[in-house]
Design a protein that fits this description.
The structure is a homotetramer. With about 350 residues, chain A is α+β, with helices and mostly antiparallel strands. Chain A contains nine helices and 18 strands. The first copy, chain A, has a single domain, classed as 4-Layer Sandwich (Chorismate synthase, AroC fold), CATH 3.60.150.10.
Chain lengths: ~350, ~350, ~350, ~350
């Protein structure tokens, strides 16, 4: 279980790295919305490996097919089946895995949980699982955009020890983000980040990073008090992405160092009602969106697969030296961007649906 | 909706700060477990305000009553109803709220969402809502302790700019945590934290902080891959606690600055199977517990209610200067400890139940 | 688990027959709806035992208290806690139960499932559990009535072999139903039913019956295709009521004996759009309400508790002759009426909420 | 939403009659179970149209492909994606549907609900949707069979006014059911049923029927008290099948005509514990299985699509005479058998999983 995310707008994913393909069923999509494969492909292309020196060389087309739920390019209100075939399968690369659990991979945990695991690739812990999320999230995002004008943009704000200069969350665009291959809108920092990734690759090592995300034009009133607060749903969504280690919203951990008189977001009159002067709250107060931009950051660890020799033990506890072969991302943050945008869209669409039922009262 | 947390072990809370009381229904509690009010009261007492100079002076007994689900001190497998009466109601303190949304409070967001809100206190956003969680979590924790020997301990690791020295997560106890009123097991840091809180109170201001938590003796194999990863459920649970701004597990945001060769947790032979030499993963790999201690940290913002004058606007947008009166916590982190422990227990009990169905296979 | 019913408008019940009380948390109630205890008490009074010769003599007040979720008689959009204290506890009546599972009761099944069961009364299988449903259903019904003008009326259509004459589902009222103590609007049949119940009581036996229900002014478009069809949700709700053995909607089992040319409901122009000339569909087509009256019937078995001597065995398999003492309903159908109305209201309110999210599209 | 059924063992279906195909994701399947397409195909073949004179002539292969979740013929504990391509699409047959809602079809209800509907075929209300259920149910059934020895057999017990002689639910087999094309194990009645269906076809009409089902070797203790009683889940599952109008378990509606002294199932010592002498309860007491055979019956209406001319109105209310062309089942009950068996298996597997979490206590 747990391959389903969402209450009303819900995506259920299937597929692992080396079976016939991956996909999703997206249920709860409103009827009478124009939708074709082209609406989904752009974000899938941004997620796809092999786009730049930053990512693995594995070449896959990742063309999505809509299996059901639309007719003549319109949604019917019925579940939308999505499928992307797996093409490039090289099971031979993974043979050592059968007796040695790779450090900081899911091998040991899966084996303990299920008593079995995929003999090649990471099974459901593979990055390919996120294809279903990105495709489903693209539908959610299109609906949010057309209904509320919502814009969701994520960007790389740090790689290793290199931090980007502050980015204006109210102005940043996907075009600016995609202007370089590391997807950091601070060009000077981007250069250094690209070098850092290249150095990690050169050293047969990997490197972590942080991705920031903003959601603009989110209507106020979304988020369900108590357990399904908007920030709790976002945290859930983000920490479900492979390789994530942390989430912060608004002021985040730096807010814990502040005083209330600094941190409180005072209200001011704005066009269309009240707004806040500052946004340490990150667009959410009491678990409910307040109409300001939702801003959050997610930490990604360095990928666990590295070419460097690692001392570890096999499943029987015997010492082993492991050296990964094959193709591996030295840094996941550029490709994490469309995944984070997709998960944010899924959360917001679901919360918007949940709020709609109160609309008529 | 969303007053329910959990899939199999689930708690549903009700009540706001100034109605007849607060409570919870805990469903999915295994039968034949010894359980009386005394099992729940200890953590409720730790959560209760008025215990020290650190917290509000509001005096409440917060005595819990088990309404249903047990007979002769044993659980029956049926839902356990829990109730705590509200005693100390002073609605007069909150009169200005009706026309002025308090900065960084939930007033504006609730009004926008529901078109109505509690005329006094914070309604469901009040800290009293967490009583139901603490009571429900105490049941979960008792079951985990008796079934697996699980121990959950949280402590204050920073207040404002003051950081505690590193604490050994494998050794820390609740007794050590409760040795001082700020609940920081580093005595020197604790003294400075207490002073910092006192200074904030003196200044009619408030101050933020960070709480760390460790869960020991958690069986490996818990956590549902993809959307309900163990860390995703923990992040969801923690960000659902009022005033939280961030969550990190294991290496957290500092892991994003590391290389894979530093960050990978190499396997070693341990009594009873494999373990890891380091624990940057924080006890979870691929969303599944690996048997190592689960370690995470949660950021709390400074409380929004401060006595200092604040320039803001009323619901109509007219400028107003707001000065909170009455009793308010200048710092929530000491009282957040039993709430975090309760939410962690609810997550782990639910995941343990979800894993049990695979046990016989 | 499973003490919760509904997706968006959801009720979670707690309590058994002989603990402190029973109640419910109703989540998803729209805000800004006038609501006081008086709105709930009427249906609780109709459910209460001891109203007539038809039911057990047990006297209980069953006064409901709203614990949370309203202020000044208005709902806040927050969960509504409901509680009814247990007053009349006579555990002594049930002593033999500890070693003999009563035939056709839940004793054996509970013991097998949980390894423990309530030492007195039926625990969660007691009819008192339905108090929480009736109270929660009264809120759902009030919202449906105020929003759509929905009317829900159930009546006794048979007791044992005595069938009432056909009742006009478009005209029947609760007043007409309550005109006699068996709650059958056919006065001649009602007389005979009352005699049949009296005869069963006299014979220390019990007797079954059928309750019909109509829901009028239900908007078209409710019901979720595939698994949560409106009739599937109603069947689920009705078969969750103790002592039920069957459910049929519209033509029901008699429809299985018909030809399509007889059974098809032809469309005709009606005020406000299309309607159907006949209503063999029972107001639902393809799982979705069509605006016609929803008509269904539910079969209730004769109560299992009878005073007549019964040959059976104890938990060890040794022969025993069992004779129930104490107070018992010889026929449950009159009291089942408000429970069925409550469950129907819960289903329709939930489906209406689920449809609302599509309203704006 | 609502394309998902089940809590722990859950199936999510997608696809309509005339898109690329239909399928399902089955989540919660235990790991390390042998599973290939051959395990699913048998029941799909029994469901497939075009097998006999009894059903539509439409020829489809309905070959299922497992897209994910297995490796080397073993389940991995991960979601199993299933797909069946649509081959035989004749959209031309349905042109009149665009302006005339077919009587007792879902056209009007879907249009009202969604503001759009499939231009050909029934969309999600098409019988092809049940392919995903049958495939998913076959997995559930295999697991139940291998784990508990559970056997599920359904058979036609009436067609129109023709009733089969009583069948022994403890002895009936699928082989006996499939011995004739109407799938009624009473050969004399089967002959008359076949003639009745032929007569209905001849008359361009259709005819209803009843299907009985037995589940043997179901462990005691399954079913969640209160809302998710075993019979409530079965009723939900069965009424979610297209064209169903009623459900009864054990004594059903005839039980409502009985006295308690007749109806009570007295306990007797049996090998392995207690059993009951009679089984009016239908294998379930207090919502929980008691180890006896689960017996229930489902009423199916005559198919709405008939060749006979029908007077009705179009969407604007103007009178129209409708005559269906093309291929249509005059009677659905033979093909309903594998669908009912699948839904029963899904319910029981889910309840078994839910009970497993209590196993260790």
């Amino acid at each position: 279980m747990s391959s389903t995310f969402g209450t009303l707008f819900r995506v259920t994913t299937f597929g692992e790295s080396h079976c016939k393909g991956v996909g999703a069923i997206v249920d709860g999509v409103p009827p009478r919305m124009a939708l074709t494969e082209a609406d989904l492909q752009a974000q899938l292309d941004r997620r796809r490996p092999g786009q730049s020196r930053m990512t693995t060389d594995r070449k896959e087309q990742d063309r999505v097919t809509i299996l059901s739920g639309t007719e003549n390019g319109m949604t019917m209100g019925t579940p939308i089946g999505l499928f992307v075939a797996n093409r490039d399968q090289r099971p031979g690369d993974y043979s050592e895995m059968s007796r040695v659990p790779r450090p900081s991979h899911a091998d040991f945990a899966y084996q303990t949980k299920y008593g079995i695991r995929a003999s090649s690739g990471g099974g459901r812990s593979s990055a390919r699982e996120t294809i279903g999320r990105v495709a489903g999230g693209a539908i959610a995002e299109k609906w949010l955009r057309e209904t509320f004008g919502t814009e969701i943009v994520a960007w790389v704000s740090s790689v290793g020890e290199i931090d980007a200069e502050a980015v204006d969350p109210l102005a940043i665009t996907r075009e600016a983000v995609d202007a370089n291959e590391i997807r950091c809108p601070d060009p000077a920092a981007a250069e250094r980040m690209i070098s850092a990734v290249a150095a990690a690759r050169e050293a047969k090592d990997s490197i972590g990073g942080v991705v920031s995300c903003v959601c603009r034009n989110v209507p106020p009133g979304l988020g369900e008090p108590v357990f399904d607060k908007a920030e709790a749903m976002l945290a859930h969504a983000m920490l479900s992405i492979p390789a994530t280690k942390g989430f912060e919203i608004g002021s985040g951990f730096s807010g814990a160092r502040m005083r209330g008189s600094q941190h409180n977001d005072r209200f001011v009159a704005k066009a269309g009602g009240l707004g806040t002067l500052t946004n340490f709250s990150g667009g959410i107060q009491g678990g409910i969106t307040n109409g300001e931009a939702i801003c959050f950051r997610v930490a990604f660890k360095p990928p666990a697969t590295i070419g460097l020799a690692q001392e570890t033990v096999d499943f029987e506890g015997a010492p082993v030296v492991l050296e990964a072969k094959g193709r591996h991302d030295p840094c996941v943050v550029p490709r994490a961007i469309p995944i984070m945008e997709a998960m944010a869209a899924l959360v917001l669409a679901d919360l918007a649906m949940r709020q709609r039922m109160r609309a008529g009262t």
